Amino acid sequence: MDQIIEVFSNVGLMQLTIGHVAMWLIAFVLLYLAIKKGVEPLLLLPIAFGIFATNFPGTGLLDEGGLFYIFYNYGIANELIPPLIFLGLGAMTDFGPVLSNPKTLLLGAAAQLGVYAAFFGAILIGFTAQEAATIGIIGGADGPTSIYLAANLAPHLLGTVAVAAYSYMALVPIIIPPVAKLLTTKKEREMIMYMVRTPSKTERIIFPILISIVIMLLVPMAAPLIAMFALGNLFMESGVVERLTGVSRDALMNIVTIFLGVGVGSTMTAQTFLNPKTLGVFAMGVVAFAVATAGGVLIAKLMNLFVKNKVNPLIGAAGVSAVPMAARVVQNMGMEANPQNYLLMHAMGPNVAGVIGTAVAAGAFIAALG
């Protein structure tokens, strides 16, 4: 009889709690958004299924040696997967717009104001400095960087921060327009920009090497992300390793995305997710994103007071590094104001600069708080 009782006590159904069911419902909502609404499906779908599977009691998936334990500890906690994602991003990134108009780099840097605003805001509402830094980085709208920083400073918030970061990336078309319109006039939004020049192949090859030197000397803790990002870009711009470029942006990117999504989802157990801190993370994430958008627009307006070749302030909103979605939103807003306005390539300048800026901010936080 004792053996029969032990067998039944080990059945998952006997260990099921309301918290587990609540997490299934959250997973189903995310699956719906990914499949039906097309919201960042490449990551949201594996994250959602990771949440679903990890909230079955008694499976051992998260126990030492379990499948999800391996995904998380050997892919995310040891900082392997986010830099590999950056390798693929580098192989897909065109720095031509930045090289054509270098001052747009400042707009990508300005958008990091949202990161620091949310950081101090999170401290004021009771989060630790490490947790606040992890929350603040959501304002950069860069999922891999958010995951990388969370794994370093606040692993217990990893799942929550990842879902918040990718949710707000998906909400770029909803969050950016009202903020950008509030801070610009119709005349400013109508402003047509022209390409200043076409950068040479030599410039394109030198640029990833140059940013590696500058950033890794100034912010050494950002090296894992920046080094892989620059390497991927060098693969593409050199033109001599097409196979490596193709693997980096396609096969490798797809494989590590699966591991990343499932590993992140596996951290979202009922015990870690269903608490008041979760609401705080999502609330401060909105603040971070809105301030980041506003920062880029306002710095663009300020820049126009001092430069001869003025920029359309809308492109500052693309400083949040949701590549290329933020640039597309800016393009649509520009054409709405003026059908002859083509801002996409100009917006890509601050867009890719935002990727670099967010990685640098993450490195600075790790150096200061790690």
Automatic annotation (TrEMBL):
<feature type="transmembrane region" description="Helical">
    <location>
        <begin position="68"/>
        <end position="92"/>
    </location>
</feature>
<dbReference type="GO" id="GO:0006814">
    <property type="term" value="P:sodium ion transport"/>
</dbReference>
<keyword id="KW-1278">Translocase</keyword>
<keyword id="KW-0472">Membrane</keyword>
<keyword id="KW-1133">Transmembrane helix</keyword>
<keyword id="KW-1003">Cell membrane</keyword>
<feature type="transmembrane region" description="Helical">
    <location>
        <begin position="281"/>
        <end position="299"/>
    </location>
</feature>
<dbReference type="GO" id="GO:0016829">
    <property type="term" value="F:lyase activity"/>
</dbReference>
<feature type="transmembrane region" description="Helical">
    <location>
        <begin position="42"/>
        <end position="62"/>
    </location>
</feature>
<feature type="transmembrane region" description="Helical">
    <location>
        <begin position="205"/>
        <end position="231"/>
    </location>
</feature>
<keyword id="KW-0915">Sodium</keyword>
<protein>
    <submittedName>
        <fullName>Glutaconyl-CoA decarboxylase subunit beta</fullName>
    </submittedName>
</protein>
<keyword id="KW-0813">Transport</keyword>
<keyword id="KW-0812">Transmembrane</keyword>
<dbReference type="InterPro" id="IPR005661">
    <property type="entry name" value="OadB_MmdB"/>
</dbReference>
<feature type="transmembrane region" description="Helical">
    <location>
        <begin position="12"/>
        <end position="35"/>
    </location>
</feature>
<feature type="transmembrane region" description="Helical">
    <location>
        <begin position="342"/>
        <end position="369"/>
    </location>
</feature>
<dbReference type="Pfam" id="PF03977">
    <property type="entry name" value="OAD_beta"/>
</dbReference>
<keyword id="KW-0406">Ion transport</keyword>
<keyword id="KW-0739">Sodium transport</keyword>
<feature type="transmembrane region" description="Helical">
    <location>
        <begin position="165"/>
        <end position="184"/>
    </location>
</feature>
<feature type="transmembrane region" description="Helical">
    <location>
        <begin position="104"/>
        <end position="127"/>
    </location>
</feature>
<dbReference type="GO" id="GO:0005886">
    <property type="term" value="C:plasma membrane"/>
</dbReference>
<feature type="transmembrane region" description="Helical">
    <location>
        <begin position="311"/>
        <end position="330"/>
    </location>
</feature>
